[in-house]
Amino acid sequence: MSEQRARHWLEQIRALELDAPVRIMNVCGGHERSITMAGLRGALPDNIELIPGPGCPVCICPEEDVYEAIRIALDEDVILVAYGDMLRVPVNVPKSEPRSLEQAKAAGADIRPIASPMEAVRIARENPDRTVVFFSAGFETTTAPLAAMLAEGVPDNLLVLLSGRLTWPAVAMLLDSDKPGFDCLVAPGHVATVMGGDEWGFVVEKHGLPTAIAGFTPESLLAAFYSTLRQRQEGRLFLDNCYPELVTPQGNPSARAQMEQVFDVVDANWRGVGTIPASGYALKAAYAAADARTHFPAYRDIARKRAGEMPPGCDCAQVVLGRKYPDECRLYGAACTPRNPIGPCMVSDEGACRIWWAGGVRSARSAA
After folding, report:
1. What is the tens place of the pLDDT at every residue in 196-221?
2. Using CA atoms, how far apart are residues 89 and 58, in angstroms rounded to an integer?
């Protein structure tokens, strides 16, 4: 049935008589993975351009935060845990020093990959005489369970090194710029499940762009593409929910309440992009006892922001912002591969470069 529905939406899209090329941005690494693996770009008419946007939290995690985690793990008697993708994110240091958490682990640091906050709690309880630091980077879908963990209470030996970000401010920044680079938006289904579909209403109301929320199947994505294209064609703009199975206007009230209880929203740095207002999470003062930065203040080196851009020649930031395709970076497929990532977009399963590589794109464009 889902294959039939996907074919139906594809036929509906092909039947539209578009009078000009249309650029549709997706704001989710999961969306980009589904688009690429299902071959949707090749199935759509040539005048529809699908642009991967800022949907990879690993890609935009500030270099100084990764460096901070590396130094704490190497210099303090701690167990550092992090989501698996974070272990391979490179930082800008001399070749003689560990340039990732993975290399720091090889150098002797006790670093362990985890898949959920509850694993961090379990490790802390199993090691009551050790301090456990949870380096938590991610968007709303991973900060929500972190908030639940902290709201419910954690062992005294568990600390959080937080690098959480909100998704919508990056889109707002692009739309407020002179050249946003897209005509329609497909908003992220998982984020909307937590935060509510209404959060994306500003794209329609303030900027007049067709917008739809999509799930992760080709059927849902094609339905969202069709909705935005038809909105644009007819001039009848609205926020369309093409993921009604999980997304409601207000999202998950319990999760949102716990996030408001635990986090402050602050201005935050995005790697290679710069500071985006009200785009980051920080632990409230009431949770200072669980804040790794309270316990290890010496490692918070703000000066590293000057060294925290993407590596020389790496266009990850431009890929994240939808201003370049992965294969337009001259390092793509040459110096930068999943085996030897130069930039973070080649590390994460949500990074567009890694996704395109997995989809069979093996080299940079000759014009790059």
Report:
1. 999 999 999 999 999 999 999 999 99
2. 8
Give pTM, 2 decimals.
0.94
CA gap 16, 45 in Å, rounded = 10
Identify the residue whose tokens are 């997304």.
247
| Nearest CA-CA partner of 216 in 54, 74, 29 | 29
86, 92, 96, 99 alpha-carbon torsion, rounded to 10°: 0
CATH code 3.40.50.11740 region(s) in the chain: 1-304
The single residue listed with the structure tokens 């999760």 is 255
**Domain range 1-304, its CATH number among 3.90.220.20, 3.40.50.11740, 3.40.640.10, 3.40.50.720:** 3.40.50.11740
In this structure, are strands 184-188 and 158-165 parallel, antiparallel, or unpaired? unpaired
Residue with tokens 């402050």: 264
| CA torsion through residues 36, 237, 181, 241, sign | negative
SS3 readout for 127-178: CCCCEEEEEEEECHHHHHHHHHHHHHCCCCCEEEEEEEECCHHHHHHHHHCC
The CB-side HSE value for 197 (13 A sphere, CA atoms) comes to 20
Closest CA to 54 of 170, 132, 186: 170
Alpha helices in the chain (DSSP H): 2-15, 29-37, 40-43, 57-60, 63-75, 101-106, 117-126, 140-152, 168-176, 189-195, 201-205, 218-234, 253-262, 292-295, 316-320, 352-358
Q: What is the pLDDT of residues 234-281, one digit of tens each?
A: 999 999 999 999 999 999 999 999 999 999 999 999 999 999 999 999
C-alpha–C-alpha distance, residues 260 and 284, integer Å: 9
Chain-centroid distance of CA 119 in Å reads: 21
Query: In the 8-state DSSP scheme, what is residue 310?
Result: P
The CA–CA distances, whole Å, from 320 to 4, 27, 251 equal 33, 9, 26
Residue 245: count other Cβ atoms within 10 Å of its Cβ. Answer: 10
